[in-house]
Amino acid sequence: MKLILKQLTNNKFQFTLFVFLLFLIIISVARAFYLAQIFSFDFHYSPAKLVSEGINHYRYTLDGHRDYGPNDRIMYDQNGLYAQGFFIMLIPFTWLNWDSSKFLWSLLNISLAIIIPILLCKKFELNRTKTFIVLSIFLTSTVFRINISYGQQTLFCFFFLLLPFFKNSNFTAILSGISYFKYNIGYVLFIYFLKLKKINKLILSLIPCVIGWLSYSFITDTNIIENLIEPIQTVSFYETKNKLPVTIFSFLKKFEVPSLIIMLLSIILSVIVIYKLRLRDNNLYKLSIICLVSLSFTSHQLHDYILLLPLLILSIKNIDNFQSKINLLFIFYFFFFLRILSFFFGFQPWEFPYGYFGYLNNFLTILILFLNLKYASLLSFSLKKIN
Tag placement on the chain: N or C end, fewer CB within 10 Å? Predict the structure, then answer.
Protein backbone atom coordinates (compact mmCIF):
# COMPACT_ATOMS: atom_id res chain seq x y z
CA MET A 1 0.00 0.00 0.00
CA LYS A 2 2.83 2.39 0.87
CA LEU A 3 4.51 1.65 -2.45
CA ILE A 4 1.28 2.47 -4.32
CA LEU A 5 0.84 5.76 -2.42
CA LYS A 6 4.46 6.66 -3.14
CA GLN A 7 3.97 5.98 -6.85
CA LEU A 8 0.80 8.11 -6.90
CA THR A 9 2.70 10.92 -5.17
CA ASN A 10 5.47 10.70 -7.73
CA ASN A 11 3.02 10.70 -10.62
CA LYS A 12 1.21 13.68 -9.13
CA PHE A 13 4.49 15.55 -8.71
CA GLN A 14 5.55 14.71 -12.26
CA PHE A 15 2.21 15.87 -13.63
CA THR A 16 2.42 19.13 -11.64
CA LEU A 17 5.95 19.73 -12.87
CA PHE A 18 4.88 19.00 -16.46
CA VAL A 19 2.01 21.50 -16.24
CA PHE A 20 4.27 24.14 -14.64
CA LEU A 21 6.97 23.78 -17.31
CA LEU A 22 4.36 23.80 -20.07
CA PHE A 23 2.98 27.03 -18.61
CA LEU A 24 6.48 28.57 -18.64
CA ILE A 25 6.98 27.50 -22.26
CA ILE A 26 3.68 29.09 -23.33
CA ILE A 27 4.51 32.32 -21.51
CA SER A 28 8.02 32.45 -23.00
CA VAL A 29 6.84 31.74 -26.56
CA ALA A 30 3.95 34.19 -26.28
CA ARG A 31 6.25 36.89 -24.91
CA ALA A 32 8.76 36.35 -27.72
CA PHE A 33 6.02 36.46 -30.37
CA TYR A 34 4.55 39.64 -28.89
CA LEU A 35 7.93 41.40 -28.85
CA ALA A 36 8.61 40.27 -32.42
CA GLN A 37 5.59 42.26 -33.58
CA ILE A 38 7.05 45.35 -31.88
CA PHE A 39 10.72 44.89 -32.80
CA SER A 40 12.10 42.33 -35.30
CA PHE A 41 14.84 44.91 -35.84
CA ASP A 42 17.30 42.28 -37.14
CA PHE A 43 14.95 40.78 -39.73
CA HIS A 44 16.63 41.81 -43.00
CA TYR A 45 13.50 43.01 -44.73
CA SER A 46 14.86 46.36 -45.93
CA PRO A 47 18.06 45.07 -47.63
CA ALA A 48 15.94 42.43 -49.38
CA LYS A 49 13.53 45.19 -50.40
CA LEU A 50 16.39 47.09 -52.00
CA VAL A 51 17.48 43.96 -53.88
CA SER A 52 13.93 43.34 -55.08
CA GLU A 53 14.04 46.84 -56.60
CA GLY A 54 17.34 46.10 -58.35
CA ILE A 55 19.51 48.00 -55.84
CA ASN A 56 22.76 46.43 -54.61
CA HIS A 57 22.48 46.78 -50.82
CA TYR A 58 26.20 46.10 -50.34
CA ARG A 59 27.10 49.05 -52.56
CA TYR A 60 24.39 51.10 -50.86
CA THR A 61 26.39 50.74 -47.62
CA LEU A 62 29.86 50.94 -49.11
CA ASP A 63 28.99 54.10 -51.07
CA GLY A 64 27.99 55.90 -47.86
CA HIS A 65 24.20 55.86 -48.14
CA ARG A 66 23.93 53.90 -44.87
CA ASP A 67 23.92 56.89 -42.49
CA TYR A 68 21.09 55.92 -40.08
CA GLY A 69 19.34 59.16 -41.00
CA PRO A 70 15.67 59.72 -41.88
CA ASN A 71 16.34 59.03 -45.58
CA ASP A 72 18.30 55.83 -44.98
CA ARG A 73 16.39 53.00 -46.66
CA ILE A 74 18.02 50.31 -44.50
CA MET A 75 16.06 50.04 -41.26
CA TYR A 76 17.35 49.53 -37.72
CA ASP A 77 20.29 47.04 -37.55
CA GLN A 78 19.50 45.30 -40.83
CA ASN A 79 23.07 45.79 -42.01
CA GLY A 80 23.04 43.05 -44.62
CA LEU A 81 25.98 41.03 -43.31
CA TYR A 82 24.97 37.84 -45.10
CA ALA A 83 25.69 36.18 -48.44
CA GLN A 84 23.74 37.14 -51.55
CA GLY A 85 21.48 34.10 -51.56
CA PHE A 86 19.90 35.02 -48.26
CA PHE A 87 18.44 38.24 -49.64
CA ILE A 88 17.18 36.42 -52.73
CA MET A 89 15.32 34.02 -50.41
CA LEU A 90 13.78 36.94 -48.51
CA ILE A 91 12.36 38.65 -51.61
CA PRO A 92 8.91 36.98 -51.23
CA PHE A 93 8.62 38.64 -47.80
CA THR A 94 9.09 42.04 -49.45
CA TRP A 95 5.86 41.53 -51.38
CA LEU A 96 4.14 42.17 -48.04
CA ASN A 97 4.29 45.25 -45.85
CA TRP A 98 6.68 45.41 -42.89
CA ASP A 99 4.13 44.38 -40.24
CA SER A 100 2.85 41.38 -42.20
CA SER A 101 6.32 40.19 -43.15
CA LYS A 102 7.70 40.26 -39.60
CA PHE A 103 4.53 38.48 -38.41
CA LEU A 104 5.21 35.61 -40.83
CA TRP A 105 8.94 35.60 -40.06
CA SER A 106 8.27 35.29 -36.32
CA LEU A 107 5.89 32.35 -36.95
CA LEU A 108 8.56 30.65 -39.07
CA ASN A 109 11.19 31.19 -36.37
CA ILE A 110 8.94 29.83 -33.61
CA SER A 111 8.13 26.79 -35.73
CA LEU A 112 11.85 26.11 -36.28
CA ALA A 113 12.56 26.59 -32.56
CA ILE A 114 10.10 23.80 -31.77
CA ILE A 115 10.90 21.50 -34.69
CA ILE A 116 14.71 21.60 -34.39
CA PRO A 117 15.03 20.26 -30.80
CA ILE A 118 12.32 17.65 -31.40
CA LEU A 119 14.07 16.37 -34.52
CA LEU A 120 17.46 16.33 -32.79
CA CYS A 121 16.09 14.48 -29.75
CA LYS A 122 14.35 11.94 -31.97
CA LYS A 123 17.44 11.47 -34.13
CA PHE A 124 19.70 10.91 -31.15
CA GLU A 125 17.22 8.71 -29.28
CA LEU A 126 16.22 10.71 -26.23
CA ASN A 127 13.11 9.46 -24.49
CA ARG A 128 9.99 11.61 -24.11
CA THR A 129 10.88 12.85 -20.65
CA LYS A 130 14.34 14.03 -21.66
CA THR A 131 12.96 15.50 -24.88
CA PHE A 132 10.46 17.55 -22.90
CA ILE A 133 13.23 18.71 -20.54
CA VAL A 134 15.31 19.85 -23.54
CA LEU A 135 12.30 21.69 -24.99
CA SER A 136 11.56 23.32 -21.65
CA ILE A 137 15.11 24.61 -21.23
CA PHE A 138 15.44 25.78 -24.81
CA LEU A 139 12.03 27.44 -25.22
CA THR A 140 12.23 29.31 -21.90
CA SER A 141 15.77 30.57 -22.50
CA THR A 142 16.82 34.15 -23.15
CA VAL A 143 18.60 33.18 -26.37
CA PHE A 144 15.38 31.73 -27.78
CA ARG A 145 13.35 34.86 -26.98
CA ILE A 146 16.05 37.12 -28.45
CA ASN A 147 16.03 35.12 -31.68
CA ILE A 148 12.28 35.53 -32.02
CA SER A 149 11.83 39.07 -30.73
CA TYR A 150 14.74 40.51 -32.73
CA GLY A 151 13.69 38.65 -35.90
CA GLN A 152 17.04 36.93 -36.11
CA GLN A 153 18.25 34.61 -38.90
CA THR A 154 20.23 32.19 -36.73
CA LEU A 155 17.50 29.57 -36.29
CA PHE A 156 16.87 29.58 -40.03
CA CYS A 157 20.53 28.99 -40.98
CA PHE A 158 21.06 26.57 -38.08
CA PHE A 159 18.30 24.32 -39.41
CA PHE A 160 20.10 23.85 -42.72
CA LEU A 161 23.45 23.24 -41.01
CA LEU A 162 21.82 20.31 -39.19
CA LEU A 163 20.38 18.59 -42.27
CA PRO A 164 23.45 16.43 -43.12
CA PHE A 165 23.31 15.05 -39.56
CA PHE A 166 19.67 14.06 -40.00
CA LYS A 167 20.15 12.36 -43.36
CA ASN A 168 23.26 11.77 -45.44
CA SER A 169 22.14 12.44 -49.02
CA ASN A 170 22.99 14.65 -51.97
CA PHE A 171 19.76 16.59 -51.49
CA THR A 172 20.49 17.46 -47.85
CA ALA A 173 24.05 18.36 -48.86
CA ILE A 174 22.68 20.90 -51.34
CA LEU A 175 20.23 22.38 -48.83
CA SER A 176 22.89 22.50 -46.11
CA GLY A 177 24.72 25.11 -48.18
CA ILE A 178 22.03 27.61 -47.17
CA SER A 179 23.77 27.70 -43.78
CA TYR A 180 26.77 29.28 -45.55
CA PHE A 181 24.70 32.45 -45.99
CA LYS A 182 25.49 33.23 -42.34
CA TYR A 183 29.29 33.11 -42.48
CA ASN A 184 30.06 32.72 -38.78
CA ILE A 185 27.94 29.55 -38.62
CA GLY A 186 28.10 27.89 -42.02
CA TYR A 187 31.87 27.86 -42.39
CA VAL A 188 32.26 25.04 -39.84
CA LEU A 189 30.08 22.77 -41.97
CA PHE A 190 32.28 23.54 -44.98
CA ILE A 191 35.36 22.52 -42.95
CA TYR A 192 33.53 19.40 -41.73
CA PHE A 193 32.78 18.27 -45.29
CA LEU A 194 36.39 19.00 -46.20
CA LYS A 195 37.62 16.97 -43.24
CA LEU A 196 35.45 14.01 -44.32
CA LYS A 197 37.01 14.27 -47.80
CA LYS A 198 33.51 14.21 -49.25
CA ILE A 199 34.34 16.51 -52.13
CA ASN A 200 31.08 15.72 -53.91
CA LYS A 201 29.09 16.83 -50.84
CA LEU A 202 31.28 19.92 -50.54
CA ILE A 203 30.64 20.90 -54.16
CA LEU A 204 26.91 20.23 -53.85
CA SER A 205 26.72 22.39 -50.72
CA LEU A 206 28.10 25.35 -52.69
CA ILE A 207 25.16 25.32 -55.12
CA PRO A 208 22.90 27.67 -53.06
CA CYS A 209 25.74 30.19 -52.72
CA VAL A 210 26.50 30.12 -56.45
CA ILE A 211 22.84 30.44 -57.42
CA GLY A 212 22.38 33.25 -54.90
CA TRP A 213 25.48 35.08 -56.12
CA LEU A 214 24.54 34.86 -59.81
CA SER A 215 20.89 35.74 -59.15
CA TYR A 216 21.84 38.73 -57.01
CA SER A 217 24.28 39.99 -59.65
CA PHE A 218 21.62 39.67 -62.36
CA ILE A 219 18.81 41.32 -60.38
CA THR A 220 20.98 44.24 -59.25
CA ASP A 221 22.88 44.49 -62.56
CA THR A 222 26.22 44.12 -60.73
CA ASN A 223 29.45 42.77 -62.19
CA ILE A 224 29.71 39.19 -60.90
CA ILE A 225 33.38 39.54 -59.93
CA GLU A 226 32.74 42.74 -57.98
CA ASN A 227 29.69 41.21 -56.34
CA LEU A 228 31.72 38.19 -55.28
CA ILE A 229 33.82 40.27 -52.86
CA GLU A 230 31.25 42.92 -51.84
CA PRO A 231 29.86 40.88 -48.90
CA ILE A 232 33.38 40.64 -47.39
CA GLN A 233 33.95 44.35 -48.02
CA THR A 234 30.72 45.11 -46.17
CA VAL A 235 31.77 43.00 -43.17
CA SER A 236 35.12 44.84 -43.11
CA PHE A 237 33.26 48.16 -43.29
CA TYR A 238 31.30 47.42 -40.11
CA GLU A 239 34.32 45.87 -38.42
CA THR A 240 36.24 49.14 -38.76
CA LYS A 241 33.33 50.83 -37.00
CA ASN A 242 33.62 48.31 -34.12
CA LYS A 243 30.17 46.95 -34.85
CA LEU A 244 31.18 43.29 -34.56
CA PRO A 245 31.38 41.35 -31.26
CA VAL A 246 34.82 40.65 -29.82
CA THR A 247 36.58 37.28 -29.89
CA ILE A 248 39.67 36.05 -28.11
CA PHE A 249 41.68 37.41 -31.07
CA SER A 250 40.21 40.92 -31.01
CA PHE A 251 43.01 42.25 -28.80
CA LEU A 252 45.37 41.75 -31.78
CA LYS A 253 43.75 44.76 -33.43
CA LYS A 254 45.47 46.95 -30.86
CA PHE A 255 48.75 45.82 -32.41
CA GLU A 256 47.42 46.69 -35.87
CA VAL A 257 47.29 43.06 -36.95
CA PRO A 258 45.27 42.96 -40.22
CA SER A 259 41.74 41.56 -40.01
CA LEU A 260 42.64 39.02 -42.68
CA ILE A 261 45.34 37.53 -40.43
CA ILE A 262 42.91 37.35 -37.52
CA MET A 263 40.34 35.62 -39.74
CA LEU A 264 42.98 33.12 -40.92
CA LEU A 265 43.87 32.33 -37.29
CA SER A 266 40.22 31.56 -36.57
CA ILE A 267 39.95 29.31 -39.62
CA ILE A 268 43.20 27.46 -38.85
CA LEU A 269 42.11 26.73 -35.27
CA SER A 270 38.69 25.62 -36.51
CA VAL A 271 40.30 23.23 -39.00
CA ILE A 272 42.61 21.76 -36.33
CA VAL A 273 39.77 21.10 -33.88
CA ILE A 274 37.32 19.72 -36.44
CA TYR A 275 40.06 17.50 -37.86
CA LYS A 276 40.35 15.82 -34.45
CA LEU A 277 36.74 14.67 -34.80
CA ARG A 278 37.83 12.07 -37.37
CA LEU A 279 38.51 9.77 -34.41
CA ARG A 280 34.91 9.94 -33.18
CA ASP A 281 31.88 8.09 -34.50
CA ASN A 282 29.25 9.74 -32.30
CA ASN A 283 27.45 12.24 -34.52
CA LEU A 284 25.81 14.09 -31.62
CA TYR A 285 29.22 14.65 -30.05
CA LYS A 286 30.68 15.80 -33.38
CA LEU A 287 27.77 18.19 -33.97
CA SER A 288 28.19 19.63 -30.46
CA ILE A 289 31.89 20.25 -31.02
CA ILE A 290 31.34 21.79 -34.46
CA CYS A 291 28.87 24.27 -32.98
CA LEU A 292 31.26 25.07 -30.12
CA VAL A 293 34.03 25.71 -32.67
CA SER A 294 31.86 28.29 -34.40
CA LEU A 295 31.03 30.01 -31.11
CA SER A 296 34.67 29.93 -29.98
CA PHE A 297 36.53 31.32 -32.95
CA THR A 298 34.18 33.75 -34.71
CA SER A 299 32.19 36.81 -33.65
CA HIS A 300 28.74 36.09 -32.24
CA GLN A 301 25.90 37.96 -30.62
CA LEU A 302 24.12 36.38 -27.65
CA HIS A 303 21.29 35.02 -29.83
CA ASP A 304 23.77 32.79 -31.71
CA TYR A 305 24.22 30.71 -28.57
CA ILE A 306 21.25 28.65 -29.67
CA LEU A 307 24.10 26.65 -31.23
CA LEU A 308 24.53 25.19 -27.74
CA LEU A 309 21.39 23.11 -28.35
CA PRO A 310 23.29 19.97 -29.51
CA LEU A 311 25.54 20.22 -26.45
CA LEU A 312 22.42 20.56 -24.28
CA ILE A 313 20.96 17.39 -25.81
CA LEU A 314 24.28 15.57 -25.44
CA SER A 315 24.50 16.59 -21.78
CA ILE A 316 20.88 15.67 -20.95
CA LYS A 317 21.36 12.33 -22.69
CA ASN A 318 24.43 11.66 -20.52
CA ILE A 319 23.25 13.51 -17.42
CA ASP A 320 25.04 11.18 -14.98
CA ASN A 321 28.43 12.12 -16.37
CA PHE A 322 30.48 14.81 -14.60
CA GLN A 323 31.45 16.60 -17.82
CA SER A 324 27.77 16.80 -18.76
CA LYS A 325 27.05 18.63 -15.52
CA ILE A 326 29.83 21.13 -16.29
CA ASN A 327 28.33 21.57 -19.76
CA LEU A 328 24.90 22.27 -18.28
CA LEU A 329 26.28 24.94 -15.96
CA PHE A 330 27.91 26.59 -18.97
CA ILE A 331 24.70 26.37 -21.02
CA PHE A 332 22.58 27.79 -18.19
CA TYR A 333 25.01 30.68 -17.91
CA PHE A 334 24.20 31.76 -21.47
CA PHE A 335 20.56 30.66 -21.53
CA PHE A 336 19.48 32.26 -18.25
CA PHE A 337 22.18 33.70 -15.98
CA LEU A 338 23.41 36.45 -18.31
CA ARG A 339 19.91 37.91 -18.34
CA ILE A 340 19.96 37.98 -14.54
CA LEU A 341 23.37 39.67 -14.61
CA SER A 342 22.03 42.30 -16.99
CA PHE A 343 19.69 43.57 -14.26
CA PHE A 344 22.57 44.02 -11.82
CA PHE A 345 25.10 45.54 -14.21
CA GLY A 346 22.69 47.62 -16.27
CA PHE A 347 23.55 45.81 -19.51
CA GLN A 348 21.17 44.89 -22.27
CA PRO A 349 21.53 41.33 -23.68
CA TRP A 350 22.95 42.61 -26.97
CA GLU A 351 25.83 44.31 -25.10
CA PHE A 352 27.32 41.12 -23.62
CA PRO A 353 29.39 40.19 -26.72
CA TYR A 354 31.33 43.45 -26.36
CA GLY A 355 33.99 44.72 -23.93
CA TYR A 356 35.14 42.71 -20.94
CA PHE A 357 32.04 40.53 -20.85
CA GLY A 358 32.62 39.69 -24.51
CA TYR A 359 36.15 38.45 -23.77
CA LEU A 360 34.94 36.54 -20.69
CA ASN A 361 32.13 34.81 -22.59
CA ASN A 362 34.43 33.90 -25.46
CA PHE A 363 37.06 32.53 -23.06
CA LEU A 364 34.44 30.38 -21.28
CA THR A 365 33.25 29.01 -24.62
CA ILE A 366 36.78 28.05 -25.67
CA LEU A 367 37.36 26.47 -22.24
CA ILE A 368 34.25 24.30 -22.57
CA LEU A 369 35.26 23.35 -26.10
CA PHE A 370 38.65 22.07 -24.99
CA LEU A 371 37.26 20.37 -21.88
CA ASN A 372 34.89 18.39 -24.09
CA LEU A 373 37.74 17.54 -26.43
CA LYS A 374 40.08 16.52 -23.60
CA TYR A 375 37.61 14.38 -21.67
CA ALA A 376 35.73 12.87 -24.61
CA SER A 377 37.17 9.43 -23.89
CA LEU A 378 35.88 9.63 -20.32
CA LEU A 379 32.35 10.59 -21.28
CA SER A 380 29.66 7.94 -21.20
CA PHE A 381 28.79 8.31 -24.89
CA SER A 382 27.83 5.33 -26.93
CA LEU A 383 30.57 5.15 -29.51
CA LYS A 384 28.32 3.36 -31.95
CA LYS A 385 27.75 5.50 -35.00
CA ILE A 386 24.27 7.01 -35.20
CA ASN A 387 23.34 7.39 -38.87
Answer: N
CB-based contacts of 210, cutoff 8 Å, min separation 6 = none
Range of the domain at 353: 244-387
Question: In angstroms, what CA-CA distances link 73 with 46, 59, 150?
Answer: 7, 13, 19
Full DSSP string of 80-94: --S-HHHHHHHGGGG
The H-assigned helical ranges of the chain are: 2-38, 45-52, 57-62, 84-90, 98-123, 128-139, 142-149, 154-166, 170-176, 183-196, 199-205, 207-219, 224-240, 259-276, 283-297, 309-317, 322-332, 338-345, 355-374
pTM: 0.93
Asked if the structure places residue 316 within a domain, the reply is yes
Q: Are the C-beta atoms of 278 and 86 separated by less than 8 Å? A: no
Tell me which DSSP letter residue 333 carries.
Answer: I
The Cα 294–Cα 359 span in angstroms is 15
Residue 144 lies in a domain: no
CA distances from 96 to 56, 73, 101, 147 (A): 20, 16, 6, 21
Residues 6+ apart with CB under 8 A from 359: 246, 248, 250, 251
Report yes or no on 119 lying in a domain.
no
pLDDT digits (tens, 9 = 90+) for 151-196: 999 999 999 999 999 998 999 999 999 999 999 999 999 999 998 8
Residue-wise pLDDT for 199-231, tens only, equals: 899 999 999 999 999 999 999 999 999 999 999
In terms of Cα–Cα distance, which of 33, 173, 121, 69 is closest to 314?
121
| Span 295-354, pLDDT tens digits | 999 989 999 999 999 999 999 999 988 999 999 999 999 999 988 888 777 777 767 787
Could you give the percent of the chain with pLDDT greater than 70? 94
Distance CA(82)–CA(88), nearest Å, equals 11
Could you tell me if residue 40 is left (phi over 0), alpha (psi between -120 and 50 degrees) or otherwise beta? Answer: left
Tally of domains within the chain: 1
